[in-house]
Amino acid sequence: MRIGEIAALVGVTSRAVRHYHHIGLLPEPARQANGYRAYTVRDAVLLARIRRLTEIGLSLDEVRDVLADDAGRELAEVLGELDADLARQEREIHERRQVLAVLLEAPLTSDGPLSPALAALLEHAPATTSPAAAKDREHLSLLDAAGDGAGAELLAAMRPLAEDPEVLVLYERLDELAGAGVDDPRIAPLAAELVAAVPDEVLAMIPEGEPSTTGLGRVLLDDYPPAQRAVVRRVMEALAERVRTRAHRRAP
Question: What are phi and psi of 91, to 5 degrees?
Answer without folding.
Answer: -65, -45
